[in-house]
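Lay summary

Proteins are chains of building blocks that fold into shapes. Our project writes down both the chain and a compact code for its shape. Here are two examples, one after the other.
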Amino acid sequence: MADRRRFPWWTTLALAAPLAGAAGFLYARSRLNDEQVPQSVFLPGVGPGVTVLAIWAHPDDEITCAGTLARLAKSGARIVLLYLTRGEAAQDTGYDRDELARIRIEEARAAGRLLGAVHTEVLDFPDGGLWTLKPEEAKAAIRDAIGRHRPQVLISFDEKVGFYGHPDHVKTGVWVREVFEDAPAEGAWPRLLYQVTLPRALVRLALKLVSAFREHYPRDPARGLPPPELAVNIASQAAVKRALLDVHGSQRAIIADVQPGYDKVPAWLYYRLFDREYFVSHRRR
């Protein structure tokens, strides 16, 4: 005969609490992410043997899509990291500009090793001063890198906001997009450009929690980040992305701002809540 005895109330509560917590977690994740954006394990067009050139303004900018880069490298893609500056103008680090430049070059190289990049290159254009350059000077350096590494795919910032409004990011995004579209008449050239972006829910959260967004991000939504077309799930790369944040030790305060709470929550949990990196794609005409 069935046992009709009731569980004690505290047993019922103990069983219900984890279920309620899990439901709350899933609800929070659905509110932060755009569930309408298709998810993928990898970036379309990238596979074994494909070379991806990721072009950034500063060492640590690769954090914006580090989980994706790590997944691509593990799948057999050849990842090349290119930074236009040494990041020597970062504030409140305790280092002078020359010492900071040296440290950040080493951090960039360590980031490349951690992500599985086949090559990491740091140029010496002025940090905080990309807007002072003649565009052709910077674009020539980007073309040179494309000629040497012969990538099929580029990854960089968008040309409107540069992720959160940093002028160096915007300039980098503009130059990469222009170089990508201005292909030479002959010779191999990248066929795809992916730009990192965010859905509106994450932008709203960043405007509340991240001072870099509050100070630089456009208030007019029409001038904001391009809407994402694709999300790469990076939960499996949680440990790598967390370790990458520690690689950039000179930027600890800045990283704590743009990745709020990352050092208070286990990586496996943090990157199940923020488990996607978002992109918009461009194919060369």
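And here is the second example, written the same way.
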Amino acid sequence: MSQVSKNSGDPEIDLSVISKKIGDFFSSIATAAFEAILFVKRNLIIFSFLVLAGVVIGFFLDKSEDRFNTNIIVGSNFGSTEYLYGKVELLNSKIKDGDTTFLKSIGVKHPKKLRIIEIEPIVDIYNFVNNSSPNMPSGAQNTQNFELVKLLSESSDINKVIKEETTSKNYTKHMIHVESKGMISNSDSVDPILKYLNENSYYNAIQASLVNNISKKMVENEGIIRQINALLDQFSHEAANNQRNDKLVYYNNENNQINDIINTKNGLIAELGNQRIQLINFDKTIKDYSRIINFRKKQGTFGKMKVVLPILLMILFILFVRIKRFYRYQMRKRTT
């Protein structure tokens, strides 16, 4: 009890101990900082050499890793998705194997610049569900696609369903990634690749037949619209004569027929607009929608080696000196 009361009655002793420890802590920091300054001073020439060597080597490493990316958004028409993925995989294998003869044969002028070509679907589940075939009315929901997604989502996570290969390959748009060493151009690389992807006699025949059918249907729709316009002009002329003769008579049956004719005309106009868009989209088996070429690939230490390497070399040198000192200290302990 007397010991407890003595300790509790002298808080100044505890404070002095704490104050001394804090002072020792800051003193040790100051000593360590001064030793670090002396260490750098003693090895200033070595550190200067390491910084210079690191900057020079890092510059060449950054230059050798001067990679660019090119992204091409494409659409696969006429059920050619599997064909598209297979062609891209073949191209990628030729690039990895360094088969410059093959790449030059398809029109690529600087094949050694190409490093990787890959493809992935652009996830668009809503367009996948609402995507209609050329034979379906414009804006109609694709019931088969909707039921497929609904069925798959009941048995597993919907996020996994929309990203898995069996579903994602049915999306209408896909992204082709091309990685190159140095800059490429449309004429030298992108256009030859897209031309190669469209070289298939089977799909080209389907494309020609479908475009021909759409063009014929457009001609027929335009003819029907002209006939409807002629009927409406005739009705308008007769209505104007009746008004001049003060013999205007309303017939509900005729009015209903005219409304049906007008609705038919509006439907044909909408169908014509959709067919014009189809002709634009179906001019190629693999339709390219947009291109973004030659943007720098910046990942990890890319472009930073001239800064990272000098720091890394100095850290390794410091570790080497510390390990050497530790080794000598342990050896002195063993010999004494």
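What can we say about the second shape? The beta strands are 67-76, 114-121, 173-181, 286-296.
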